[in-house]
Amino acid sequence: MRFAPVPDYHMHTPRCHHAIGSVREYAEAALRIGLNEIGMSDHSPMPGGFDAAWRMDRSELTDYLAEVEAVRDEFAGRLTVRIGLEADFHPGSESYVRDMTGAYPWDYVIGSVHYLGDWGFDNPDNLDDWNGRDVEQAYCDYYATVAASAATGMFDIIGHPDLIKKFGHRPAPGSRRVRAAEEAMLDAVQQAGTALEISSAGLRKPVAEVYPHGQMLALAAERGIPFAFGSDAHAPGEVGHAMGTCLGMLAACGITEVVRFDQRQRFPVAIRELVP
Ligand code: ZN
Ligand code: FE
Ligand code: FE
Ligand code: ZN
User: Fold this and answer.
1) The whole model's pTM is what?
2) Which terminal residue of the chain, N or C, has fewer Cβ atoms less than 10 Å from its own Cβ?
3) Cα separations (Å) of 111 from 45, 108, 197?
4) Are 110 and 156 in contact (CB under 8 A)?
5) Are 2 and 276 in contact (CB under 8 A)?
6) pLDDT for 188-232, tens place per residue?
7) What is the per-residue pLDDT for 202?
8) Ligand nearest to the CA of residue 54, numbered in listed order
9) What distance in angstroms lies between residue 111's CA and the mean position of ligand 3's atoms?
10) Are 55 and 43 in contact (CB under 8 A)?
11) What residue ranges do the domains of the chain occupy?
């Protein structure tokens, strides 16, 4: 990698039923590739048992926190381990999310949109639900929901901000409606003062592209929106995945720093190019 490593703030545990590895294994993987800071951000519980098969149960939160705190303490001085959460933005659950995030000194909360209404559009089990969809409308609805998530002010980082492309469904190239929806989303993020995530996870998905795409990155850079890096690791071997690619994309947009968090306070981390 031609860049000094930055924090990786997006990784999961088996409590979400679709990740493997203990928190210690994620920390060890981070040290092996030379990171000095990571953050765990498992899928948070949702009210009413909503899509319970893809997230931890509320009763597991205490255990999640205990495991991350124990690893944080064990690795202190070698690796900074932050305690975060990937919370869904699903209109109607705002007060539940506020309760949960207010009840513990989280380092950061990632807000992600994985549902449009009850449709889990990024769930491979629901891939058939894309059949016959108006893709342009799905994109517009998605960006409007992401904009609304930022506007709540509940989140520190907006996760994988063009996740809707995950399986490669694309609106007509040059769609003005989609472009307008993207810009409105970025305006909302800028106004809320929230950071965006640059995520390498898309590279491991059918779309085979970083989230967000390069043009959105440039538009975000124009607005001075800060970025946090996330691999969205669901296995220890994915920690730090393609960090160099992501930092290179940021640097190409003239972005000179990413961010880190400590108890929901944001600090800059310079993107440093390594001299060979
Ligand atoms: Zn996940
Ligand atoms: Fe996510
Ligand atoms: Fe995630
Ligand atoms: Zn995720």
Assistant:
1) 0.98
2) C
3) 13, 10, 10
4) yes
5) yes
6) 999 999 999 999 999 999 999 999 999 999 999 999 999 999 999
7) 98
8) 1
9) 10
10) yes
11) 2-274
Q: What are phi and psi of 151, to 5 degrees?
A: -65, -20
CA of 268 to the centre of ligand 4 (A): 23
Distance between first and last Cα of the chain: 10
Task: Please determine, looking at this structure, whether the domain spanning 2-274 carries the CATH number 3.20.20.140.
Answer: yes
Ligand 4 centroid–CA 240 distance in Å is: 14
Task: Measure the CA–CA gap between 189 and 168, rounded to whole angstroms.
Answer: 24
Q: How far is the CA of 86 from the centre of ligand 1 (A)?
A: 9
Rounded to whole angstroms, how far apart are CA atoms 200 and 185? 20
Using the mean position of ligand 1's atoms as its centre, give its distance from the Cα of residue 141 in Å: 21
> What is the tens place of the pLDDT at every residue in 154-188?
999 999 999 999 999 999 999 999 999 999 999 99
- Measure 106 CA to ligand 2 centroid, in angstroms: 18
Residue carrying structure tokens 């305006």: 187
Distance 159 CA to ligand 4 centre (A): 7
Q: Which ligand is nearest to the CA of 18?
A: 1
Taking the centre of ligand 4 as the mean of its atom positions, its distance from the CA of residue 275, in whole angstroms, is: 33
